[in-house]
Each structure stands twice: as C-alpha cells, then as structure tokens.
Amino acid sequence: MERRDFIRLFSQAQFVAAVGRPEGLPPPGPPEVAFAGRSNVGKSSAINALLGRRSLARTSKTPGRTQTINFYDLDGVAQLVDLPGYGYARVPQAVRAQWQSLVSAYLQDRTTLAGVVVIMDARHPLTPLDRQLLAWLGDIRRLLLLSKADKLSRAEQAATLKRVGGEALLFSSVTRQGVEECRGLLEGWLQQAAEIKSPR
C-alpha cells in the first residue's frame, strides 16, 4: 500500500469495538498503533486531532471515565487503539486492577502492534506512572507525545523537549502543533508493519 493511502485512511477512521475484558479482545488483524496516557491528559483530543474529527474519540472532563480499550478501523488496512487512561486516584482499586489486567493482556500478546504513542502533559511530563508505563513497554516502539504544548512558551517548550529527550514531539490539539508530524511518523510505522506482514 502506498503511503498516501494511509494519509487518506486517517480521515476515514471508524469506531468498531470497545473491550472491557482480556477475553473480549478481537483476534489480531491489520497493523495497530495504540495510544496510552494518564487520565485526563488529552488523549482523546489528540486522537481526534490526528484523525481530523471532532468527537470520534469521546472526550470527558471527568478523569477515569474511559475504562475500555477502544478500536478504530482504518478501512481494514490498519487500526488505532485507544487504551484506558491510568493513574486516577478516585478509581476503585478493583477497577485499577482490571485496567492493569486488560492493558497488560493487550500489550504483551498483541503481535500486530506497530507501536505505542504515550501521551503526556507537556507541563508535567515523565511522572512516576509515565515512567512505569515506559518501563513496562520494554522494547515496543514508542513515541512520547507532549500534549497541551500551547500552554507553554517557546522557551518552555524547548526546555521540556530537552528534558524529556528520546523520541518526543510537542503537540497541541488546539493549535494543531505537531499534528502533521505525528501523522507522518505513525504512517511510517504502519507502512513498515504492513510491508513486514505482506512481503513481496
């Protein structure tokens, strides 16, 4: 598949499933990119910005609202996967344990996972829970997406990028900073995964 087809497919994403238990995960299919982040970090807003949609991924001002893994299909060629937010203290312990079991089952066994976008608040990146997730991901390809970058000055943005290091990108769903660059990176991931899956 040519790269321009992935660009087109981003705008044609469709919600296909919400999974709340490990046994409900669909069988692996086309390449997938997963999105992870703390509760209320702007994950759904970032996904909507990348897809050019206003409300495909539901946003909420109430942390901990999303407790399922949501799958979005790109015309059968690829999938975007929205993982439930983590780290909200008011969520009962049983729910946190269920989150860990569900997300662990997905990340550890998903053979079609092309990479994970870890979304962090640019004002407060690399919290202990963020670091725990990054360690948990091991060798899985990742992109650190620093959301709400519009709330920082240019000097603060530069300092944050330097502090975070690695594969990090400043992002704002409000000003659209980083949207096209992030799309390009994800398209490259999916293109590479598709070529590996279907060698000529």
Structure description:
This protein is of the alpha/beta class and 200 residues long. It has one domain: Rossmann fold, CATH 3.40.50.300. The protein contains six helices and seven strands; from the N terminus they run H-E-E-H-E-E-H-E-H-E-H-E-H. It has helices at residues 3-10, 43-51, 93-109, 128-137, 154-164, 179-197, and strands at 14-19, 32-37, 69-74, 78-82, 113-121, 142-147, 168-170. The chain has a seven-stranded mixed beta sheet, with helices on both faces. Helix 5 (154-164) links the parallel strand 6 (142-147) and strand 7. Helix 1 (3-10) packs across helix 6. The protein is globular.
Could you give a quick summary of the protein structure above?
This protein has helices at residues 3-10, 43-51, 93-109, 128-137, 154-164, 179-197; strands at residues 14-19, 32-37, 69-74, 78-82, 113-121, 142-147, 168-170. The protein is an alpha/beta fold and 200 residues long. The protein has a seven-stranded mixed beta sheet with strand order 1-3-4-2-5-6-7, sandwiched between helices.
Q: Gap between N and C termini, in Å?
A: 11 Å
Q: Could you say what the CATH topology is called?
A: Rossmann fold
When the domains are counted, the total is: 1
- What would you give as the CATH superfamily? P-loop containing nucleotide triphosphate hydrolases
> What share of the residues does DSSP label as strand, in percent?
15-25%
Coarse morphology:
globular
Q: Which CATH top level class fits?
A: Alpha Beta
What is the number of helices? 6
**Helix and strand run:** HEEHEEHEHEHEH
Would you identify the regions where 5 or more consecutive residues have pLDDT less than 50?
60-64
Strand order of the largest sheet: 1-3-4-2-5-6-7
Helix content: 25-40%
Mean pLDDT: 86
The overall strand count is 7
Structural class: alpha/beta
Radius of gyration: 16 Å
The major β-sheet equals: 7 strands, mixed
The CATH architecture name reads 3-Layer(aba) Sandwich
